[in-house]
Design a protein that fits this description.
- Chain B: GO terms for molecular function: oxidoreductase activity.
- The complex is a heterodimer of chains A (about 350) and B (about 375).
- In chain A, about 25% of the residues lie in helices and about 30% in strands.
- The two termini of chain A are about 45 Å apart.
- In chain A, about 35% of the residues are buried.
- In chain A, β1 and β2 form a beta hairpin.
- Chain B contains 15 helices and no strands.
- In chain B, α1 packs across α10.
- Chain B starts with 11 loop residues before the first helix and ends with a helix.
- The chains are: A alpha/beta (about 350), B mainly alpha (about 375).
- The interface between A and B is large, with 29 and 46 residues.
Chain lengths: ~350, ~375
């Protein structure tokens, strides 16, 4: 018998000892970051960057496979007892000696997770992690000239790149409302002092928003540069248009933090993605009824919100709890009670 | 069944107002759910697991009587915690709001021979929706007992104190059989239905795993302590079964609890549904430890009003609910455990015999037709 087969047999034996729980349920009590556990991380420190941004130092579990500069990581944080998942760019270099990673978070108004991480989270807190992902990364072959076009917290994936690999000729154009809002300002200026970076810092409160046409003046050779851009959708749209108008769109790499914004309304188009049915629903009819009406096989139970027999994944969009009016937006792992939830805008139910 | 409807003094408007007041209590708890509650359930789960580990560890040496005693006591408590405060409540979806896949009604499994999925159907859906409705809620006597005068007497019922005692000792098996609707499904035709067979197989698998763990693997691991560990696990299961059976009997069986006719729930409003839960459940009074060990089912009335609120909130909810009982002049059935257990058993004995005198058909308890009442007034 191979050692793998032996191990698997031993594990089966252990499962018989712990049934109906799993051996890992007990191991998690003592060693949540061990190899083989669900991937987690422990927050070790929180360093303020600006008045509303902070860098979170995370010790990832043994299963962490590392990241490539520019990638992001999804983290699951318990805020007010509710596990919420958000994606943040990794801002630490890939070869950090102590194996820790950092993400840098800007608190956005009403942002549940970002405000929690920037202002409230305590070192020692355990969080859930996914492996790093994303294709906003540097190529293996070093480009001769690089341009980083960033704004606001769009600096974060680029900071991960800047810290990771040195290029011979790097220019950055970065916008932020005021000097004190520039995340990593000291780091950037240190790089400039070392002649490792040429920086144009725009303060939009006084200088106004970056007019993409001004790029000719700020970075005259921009068309020759491999460009990585990250920032608000408006800036990225303008950049994509500009690059494509000059026929150099293949040189532009962009990263969008929020690809789609859920608009919670009253009723909407409901997609039952497993069955492949789409119907219009009003904001007062329970999704259970909407599905049954459309001929979708829906799990059901008490039909009054008490038995949890109808819970179903919400893949996209938003629903409203008909009892409390509370809006639930789709996130990975979010299940809704279809008997007391109605469409609050377009949504996708996994049935 | 009481001949006099204890809710007869309420108008339809009052009942709906009562419903709105209960909704407000519920909304307040939901709005306040947060970090402390999440920390509570995590702490309880972690404590239960540690207690079980340590107790099983001690039982490895159960050949020594003090180790046997300590290990058995610890394991009994761990099993009670697993079934009551943790399993029952998580499977009710009380902690689903945390979005933690490990503490979720769709993923949780408990140290019990009834598969979580089947129990959720018979308990959460049937029992909690149709609480105390004769013919709809099989929890009324579990299909083997007569617990109300209006149920037909049969000579079989003469033995019901014994049936109830046996059920109490092997309660988890009773529940599994009950969740399978074994009695109803024993006919030849039903026995062969693929759906029933699949469910029966699921129960079989669960029983095999549980029995193997408790009565084979752990005793074997104890080596020379094999027989004493076996006895300890058997005892712990017995203690757990007797305890959970007692607590659950106190929830709906004591004197003063109302049962309802099938017809009475037709077109039931939210307020009437709430009222039925209030009149159909009974509490156990006692200390914090008592509430904890019953999985807060000592707050059965509150649990039936709000089955999906986190159990650690029932105590604070109970104060407000009780005030509503007083305001609407309703009888809040509660008492210490011995009194309630005695009351429930007394009923089991009393109803094992036929009714004393031929019963005159009395109007059923349950919000009668209010319109008629108004016309009469």
């Amino acid at each position: 018998m191979t050692s793998a087969a032996l191990r698997s047999r031993a594990w089966k034996m252990l499962e018989m000892v712990t049934t109906p729980l799993l051996p890992s349920d007990y191991l998690d009590l003592v060693s949540p970051l061990r190899a083989g556990a669900d991937l987690r991380g422990r927050i070790e420190a929180v360093h303020p960057e600006t008045s509303d941004a902070a860098t979170i130092v995370i010790r990832p579990g043994r299963g962490w496979r590392g990241h490539t500069a520019g990638q992001y990581v999804r983290i699951g944080v318990d805020v007010d007892g509710v596990r919420l998942w958000r994606a943040y760019s990794v801002t630490s270099p890939t070869n950090r000696q102590d194996g820790r990673i950092t993400v840098t978070v800007k608190a956005i108004p009403d942002g549940k997770v970002s405000n929690h991480l920037v202002r409230r989270v305590k070192p020692g807190t355990l969080i859930q992690l996914d492996q790093a992902t994303g294709d906003f990364v540097l190529p293996e072959a070093k480009p001769a000239k690089v341009l980083y076009l960033t704004a606001g917290s769009g600096i974060t994936p680029v900071m991960g790149m800047l810290r990771d690999i040195e290029f011979d000729d790097v220019v950055m154009v970065h916008s932020a409302p005021q000097p004190q809002d520039v995340i990593f300002r000291d780091d950037l200026h240190a790089l400039v002092a070392d002649k490792k970076l040429r920086l144009t810092e725009l303060h939009t409160d006084t200088d106004g928003m970056l007019d993409i046409a001004r790029l000719d003046e700020l970075v005259p050779d921009w068309t020759e540069r491999e460009t990585w851009a990250c920032g608000p959708a408006g800036m990225l749209d303008a950049a994509e248009k500009h690059w494509s108008e000059h026929g150099v769109q293949e040189r532009l790499h962009t990263e969008r933090f929020r690809p789609s914004i859920v608009v919670a309304g009253d009723g909407g188009e409901v997609t039952f993605s497993t069955t492949g049915k789409t119907v219009d629903a009003d904001g007062a009819t329970p999704l259970l009824d909407v599905g049954e009406e459309a001929g979708v096989l829906m799990p059901s139970g008490c039909r009054m919100g008490i038995c949890f027999g109808c819970v179903t994944p919400l893949k996209a969009g938003a629903v409203r709890d008909l009892r409390t009016g509370e809006i639930t937006e789709a996130e990975p792992g979010v299940l809704i009670q279809t008997c007391v939830s109605a469409a609050a805008g377009p949504c996708d139910i996994e049935r | 069944m009481t001949a006099i409807d204890p809710t007869a003094h309420l108008t339809a408007e009052q009942i709906e107002e009562l419903g709105r007041e209960l909704d407000a209590i519920r909304d307040e708890v939901i709005a306040g759910r947060g970090e402390k509650d999440a920390a509570y359930i995590r702490k309880v789960i972690s404590a239960q697991r540690k207690l079980e580990l340590v107790s099983r560890g001690v039982l490895l040496f159960s050949i020594f009587p003090p180790a046997w005693l300590i290990g058995t006591a610890g394991l009994s408590v761990a099993k009670i915690m697993d079934n009551m405060e943790i399993g029952h409540n998580i499977l009710h979806g009380q902690w689903d709001w945390m979005r933690d896949p490990k503490i979720h009604s769709t993923t949780w499994d408990w140290d019990h021979v009834s598969p979580a999925e089947q129990w959720k159907h018979s308990h959460n859906e049937l029992h909690h929706t149709y609480t105390n409705v004769i013919g709809k809620d099989n929890d009324l006597g579990y299909g083997i007992m007569r617990v109300d005068e209006d149920q037909k007497w049969h000579p079989f019922h003469l033995g019901q104190p014994l049936w109830n005692f046996i059920n109490a000792c092997f309660f988890e098996y009773g529940i599994a059989a009950y969740d399978l609707e074994l009695g109803k499904n024993l006919s030849k035709r039903r026995r062969k239905s693929p759906e029933f067979r699949a469910r029966a197989r699921a129960v079989g698998r669960k029983i095999r795993k549980q029995v193997l763990k408790d009565y084979v693997i752990h005793p074997l691991l104890s080596g020379p302590s094999f027989p004493t560990t076996l006895a300890a696990t058997f005892t712990a299961n017995l203690v757990r079964n007797l305890w959970t059976h007692s607590v659950i009997m106190c929830g709906h069986f004591p004197e003063g609890v109302q049962v309802f006719e099938r017809r009475s729930i037709r077109g039931e409003t939210r307020g009437q549904w709430y009222l039925r839960q209030m009149m159909g459940s009974a509490n156990i009074s006692g200390s914090k430890a008592m509430h904890f060990m019953t999985g807060n089912l000592s707050h059965q009335i509150e649990h039936h009003l709000f089955p999906d609120l986190p159990s650690n909130r029932y105590a604070e909810v109970a104060v407000k609910v009780r005030a509503l009982f007083e305001k609407y002049e309703l009888d809040y059935v509660t008492g210490p455990l011995p009194k309630q257990v005695f009351s429930a058993w007394h009923k089991v004995f009393r109803l094992s015999l036929p009714n004393k005198k031929p019963k005159v058909k009395t109007p059923k308890v349950k919000t009668p037709d209010r319109e008629q009442e108004l016309v009469a007034a």
